[in-house]
Amino acid sequence: MKKHDRIQRYSAPERINHWIVAFCFVLVTLSGLGFFFPSFNWLMHVLGTPQLARILHPFVGVMMFVAFMLMFFRYWRHNLPERQDLEWAKNIHKIAQNEEVGDTGRYNFGQKCVFWAAIISLVLLLASGIVIWRPYFAGAFAIPVIRLALVVHSVSAVILIIVIMVHIYAALWVKGTITAMVEGWVTSAWAKHHHPRWYRAVRERQPEQQEKRP
């Protein structure tokens, strides 16, 4: 494929940031399922021994939160609700048939929902995780508060797992999405079809960038 037919979707730092979040998510999810379900105790070995998993689980969770916050500050403007999102939502049946509707920017309404659901879940996970984090913070809270935090932590974890599963499915379903996060680029045809407004914005910036080159 000719290089001029490619458009950069994500830079190397953005891709590294994404995969750090993904790696941490796998570790905390597997170890967390091991804590929650006795029959899945063997999953805790992803972080070593069960004892080591209980120590490392919250630290890896904090690492995931920090890495995701870097993504949040980088992308939140692109995920603000727009009028075009209503058209996308009203035509969800067409989206399910792999058709695109509306003048979509960098992210469509479905991607925006995943983004905000993920950040809300992570904030709840962090807050509740601090309350139940032994031996550092749990001693400062009453038993009823800890019990409530356990419920919030569990429910938020389930929601986040579902959100990430939807995210993975959508990435696999829309051909070219995985390439964008692995290699950083998409084809012009892909961008024009799935994110036409973002495509036009990129094309408008390209002449300016070429003029600045010596």
What does this structure look like?
It is a single chain. The chain has 214 residues and is mainly alpha-helical. The chain has a single domain, classed as Up-down Bundle (Fumarate Reductase Cytochrome B subunit), CATH 1.20.950. The chain has 9 helices and 2 strands, in the order E-H-H-H-H-H-H-H-E-H-H. The protein has a two-stranded antiparallel ribbon with strand order 1-2. Helix 2 (50-75) packs across helix 5. It is elongated and about 55 Å long. 21% of the residues are buried. Residues 208-214 have low confidence and may be disordered.
Summarize this structure as a short list of keywords or feature phrases.
two-stranded antiparallel sheet, membrane, disordered C terminus, transmembrane helix, 214 residues, single chain, iron, Fumarate Reductase Cytochrome B subunit, mainly alpha, 2 strands, 9 helices
What's the rounded overall pLDDT mean?
Answer: 91
Major β-sheet strand ordering: 1-2
Structural class: mainly alpha
Our estimate of the beta-strand percent is under 5%
What is the CATH C-level name? Mainly Alpha
Mind describing the biggest β-sheet?
Answer: 2 strands, antiparallel
* Assigned CATH architecture: Up-down Bundle
Which runs of at least 5 residues are low in confidence (pLDDT < 50)? Answer: 208-214
- Total helical segments: 9
The rough form would be described as elongated
Query: What's the gyration radius in Å?
Result: 20 Å
- The count of domains is 1
Family: Belongs to the formate dehydrogenase gamma subunit family.
Transmembrane segments: 20-43, 55-76, 113-133, 145-172
Cofactor: heme
GO molecular function, one term: formate dehydrogenase (NAD+) activity
